[in-house]
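Re: the multi-chain job from yesterday

Posting the exact lines I submitted so nobody has to dig through the queue logs.
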Amino acid sequence: MAARRLVEGVYEVGVQHFDRREFDELIPLPDGTSYNSYIVFGEEKTALIDTVDPSKTHVLLENLQSLNVKKIDYIVSNHAEQDHSGSIPMLLDVFEGAKVVTNEKAKGMLQDLLHLSDEVFLTIKEGEELKLGGRTLKFIMTPWVHWPETMSTFLVEDGILFSCDFFGAHLASSELFVRSPEKVYDAAKRYYAEIMMPFRVSIKKNLEKVKALDVKMIAPSHGPVYDDPKFIISAYEEWVSDEVKNQVVIAYVSMHGSTERIVEMLYDELVKEGIEVLPFNLSVSDIGEYAMALVDASALVVASPTVLGGLHPKVAYALSLTAMLRPKLKSVAIVGSFGWGGMMVRQAKELLKALRVEYVGELLIKGLPKDEDAGKIRELAKVIAGKTLDS
Ligand code: FEO
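And the result, structure tokens for all chains:
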């Protein structure tokens, strides 16, 4: 991995972590990820924007060496999470006298996480500028993407916005700029779904701030650089909008085939009603794809067998995650099979209580669906479809 030039005097010096397969011990990374770090050379001062995961500090140092960097005046920390801040202590050892530039809230978090001393910091506020000589860094507070302290740094003369996680994509790629837009779109949507979706309202406000700048390039700290910022700004506008699509997600598990048969019958009926149906067998599905489907869906159908009197644990896990992600779902239906009764519906509602959704139907079937159950499933599909088409 080598330093890569964005424009004269601005280079990406971070890491492509191709073989990382999980983030936060939770999020699947089918395409790896990157920790982008950017060096900006002014006529008088040099600034590094964000660092890399501490497991890869050596790569960042090699890249800086390849550019013959002897002095760094400022290390800008847009976000305190360790995949971007974790190398700061080692960089402060190598580049003595460098100041960590960040906002007051991030400073506190960096001190808690990395045990940095007070004197290494230069704290800045919304709209403040730092002159590098012929180049100016302007700090734009973009809180809650996805932590409270997050900010972006705008390189005024070049129109480059260093946005850290905001607009990011977990995608390791040899392409510095977006040249495979469909792949990047999917990776950015997956990233939005898993990290940003709970903060949709804050992100809307931050998007307006970004749109007010004369941005020519967006350089996030995960994934390729957007040299056409409209590409990712319009994708974000769609994802954070209040609009939902004519889509129903079915999250299900089946042990002996009864719940699967209910799902198949419901799927067919919903398709007949003109609904796009996205089923996820939670035993085999990538939970990231499930999260992506929730970005646009109007309705969720929860389908579970009854295990030891309640929801299947894999369904319970998916519902717990769904509640955390706070998608813009309008309605939920709960279906499933049972042998001798249980608490499944109550448990599902309890797990989803953080969501403001309308429960539009419940259908629990004893054993394998019988002929007379077909009508109930058809009826439920019509109700779900009606709500979906109305929303
Ligand atoms: Fe990429 Fe929130 O860290």
